[in-house]
Amino acid sequence: MAHSSGMIVQTGGSRPHVAYIMNALADTFPNIIWKIGGKVDRTTWGGGFSAHSVGRACDIYLDAGDPVDKRLGDLLLETFATHGYNFKVDHVIWNGQIWSRSDGGPSGYTGSGGAHRDHVHVAFVDDQLDILPFAFPWILEQYVLRRFVVDGAAADRSDGLYGKAFDPKKPNVRLSRKKRHATMLKKMGMTGAK
Ligand SMILES: [Zn+2]
Fold first, then answer.
1. Is residue 178 part of a domain?
2. 3-state DSSP assignment of residue 123
3. What's the domain count of the chain?
4. Most CB atoms within 10 A, among 3, 41, 134, 185?
5. Distance 53 CA to ligand 1 centre (A)
6. Whole-number Å distance between alpha carbons of 20 and 127
7. What pLDDT is stored for residue 192 in this prediction?
8. How far is the CA of 125 from the centre of ligand 1 (A)?
9. Percent of the chain whose predicted confidence (pLDDT) is above 70
10. Residue 62 pLDDT > 60
11. How many CA atoms lie within 13 A of 12 on its CB side?
12. Which helix (H) or strand (E) holds 141?
């Protein structure tokens, strides 16, 4: 279903622990994340088992080619790795890097699904995933949001200075920063201003 920001957050079919983390991410970064995917009935590209098929994985869509998106993706990879044991993470993949419970990391990743330059993939272990991770929003704020807003441009997008990032009439369509900036100028009566 759509988050109040308009972002598509596919929590249907995901285990409660995973759905809770997806919603916390959408609540904290409503203007940055493009969408969050969850349960999908499929195998991996190579035909192997995918944690998505049993509601134990989520995909946080960000563009590694955009400096602001990349900053958030990097912080999420680091945080899911650092707090992986607390939050029952099995492995996390982003932008050519992987951390896993079994092998540690982050280290270089060239496996299934490619380098993951358009989303952070997080899979969880099958252990008590009906219990909600109430500490997760706090961890997000302390270890991700606080460091993310250090950069001025990131702060603009994080607090929605330019307005909501999603077109209210077309959920799942994220507006460009340029478009949002133009809308803000129009609202301020500054259309055409240089
Ligand atoms: Zn995935």
1. yes
2. strand
3. 1
4. 3
5. 10
6. 15
7. 61
8. 14
9. 87
10. yes
11. 7
12. none
In a domain, 5, yes or no: no
Encode 20-59 in three state secondary structure: HHHHHHHHHCCCCCCCEECCCCCCCCCCCCCHHHHCCEEE
> What is the CA(121)–ligand 1 centre distance, in A?
4
From CA 139, how far away is CA 147, in angstroms rounded?
A: 12
In angstroms and rounded to an integer, the radius of gyration of the C-alpha atoms of the chain is: 17
Q: How far is the CA of 50 from the centre of ligand 1 (A)?
A: 8
Assess whether pLDDT exceeds 60 at residue 159: no
Answer yes or no: is pLDDT of 138 > 60. Answer: yes
Number of other CB atoms surrounding residue 67 within 10 Å:
11
Q: Is residue 97 part of a domain?
A: yes
Cα 122 to ligand 1 centroid, rounded to whole Å: 6
Domain encompassing residue 37: 16-187
Burial 80-107 (b: 16+ CB within 10 A, else e): bbebbeebbbbbbbbbebbbbbeeebbe
Question: Is residue 73's pLDDT more than 90?
Answer: yes
